[in-house]
Amino acid sequence: MLTAFLMSLLTPIAPVLPATSKVAQAANQRQIILEPQEMRPLMGKLDDVPMFNSNSPEIVQTEGILLSAFPPEGMAHPKAHLNFPFQGRFDLFTHHISKAPPPVDLRTLYIGAIAYNPTDQPVTIDTLLGASYLSQPDAPFYDAPNYSLNNNGETYRGPGDRAMLDILRGRRQDIFPAQIVIPPKQSRMLMNIPIPVKELDPPLNGRSGLSRLRSNGKVYVATLALYARLNSDGTERAPNLEEWENILKNGDLSKPRDVVPTPPDLTEGAFEYSRVAGVQLGSQWFGNLTDKDSNDLAIPKSGESYSYGLSLLQYGTMGTGQVQTAPLKVRYPDTAYSAHGNYGVQYNLTLPLHNPTNETKTVTLSFQNPIKYDKPVGGLQFFEPLPDDVFFRGSVRVRFRDDRGLAQSRYVHLMMRRGERGKSLVTLTMPPSDRRVVQFDFLYPADATPPQVLTVTTTP
Known about the structure:
It is a single chain. The chain has two domains: about 25-45 and about 275-460, no CATH class; about 55-250, no CATH class. It contains four helices and 29 strands. The protein has helices spanning about 5-10, 20-30, 160-170, 240-250; strands spanning about 30-35, 40, 45, 50-55, 60, 65-70, 85-100, 110-115, 125-135, 145-150, 180, 185-195, 205-225, 230, 235, 275-280, 285-290, 295-300, 305-310, 325-330, 340, 345-355, 360-370, 380-385, 390-400, 405-415, 425-430, 435-445, 450-460. The strands form five sheets. Strands 4, 5, 6, 7, 8, 9, 11, 12, 13, 16, 20 and 21 form a twelve-stranded mixed beta sheet that branches. Strands 3, 10, 17, 18, 22, 25, 26 and 28 form an eight-stranded mixed beta sheet that branches. Strands 2-19-29-23-27 form a five-stranded mixed beta sheet, with no helix packed on it. A hairpin with a 5-residue loop joins strand 14 and strand 15.
């Protein structure tokens, strides 16, 4: 799931070290540490808000259609159009990379999102929230602490990380108009934004974005790729509406295509999730985490923990058997069968913690990145020492009342490696019979690799 190719080119390259180096020795001596504890399936479910999920092809090197939910009638390539109308609330997620094809061709790639009104009345689309960022220069990948307070919103690593943070903080960038009115039988651009590569070495750049939209009438939506057009003086300009409409009607699917996914019912051999290009059902996961037949969530016994899986997926259910992946209503045959990773999905979780004992207890809430597994292994597994590969970059928000009874809202940026334990997001001192509600939420960012877990621990 991690954009390994992009990361390998946009981050500093470590020197090749001989087998006797400390790095090689650490890899040879790396151990898997099992910490016995309970894994719980996540309570709640996804909502039914559709999300237009444009993530394949990830690397775009030809003009064409990225994802079209238009009807196929009248189109030059009918199979490129999936015929899914939107009305009411829906989301638009995009994550694509431009790589110069070949390196001497340094034209700017534009990503366009077009909406068409098939009705006889004007349709208004409101942009409730919206964010889109480039890898360079908006949100470069570079090293950072695994835990950083981020209440000012200035810490991010990668465009997916930064875009999801903006949405979590309730923001709309100026590049997204607050409202677009589409006349009957006409189209308008929801997005027409560049991915420049000309000044970069190597000539490679990525862009991630998410918009939360609301339409008061039926619309069709597509994402498209076109290279910049040239003005008479040789300077570049963005494609215009007519040029976008032409590629929509006459273009085929953009290339190169991503790896073909493994059918979900295959039980043997290697499994390829592939990239998503389709309309998923589910924008937010709402969960009230309680004990069975109770309105409370009893804290663990002293020295014990339990965890809830986040973005659990096929062959990565962490022993729970639960798959949280959003289903796809429509998709292309050579793309993912479901929205593996839940990129752009917001998790809204409430933990009504209760100390049922007659002793004061110290309770922590942490976000962790254990080693992925499927069948139960008796707990969570972690690496010692940690590998270099980063599996999660993103910010989470926790809201709670502290030990003085004061309301707190805390944003924390996390940059976690595979098999890494988590630091405390919240530490509560809970007297006997105390009840404390903690709210935890985040949007799953692109360029992260699921799953992760949310862990509640009572210290000895």
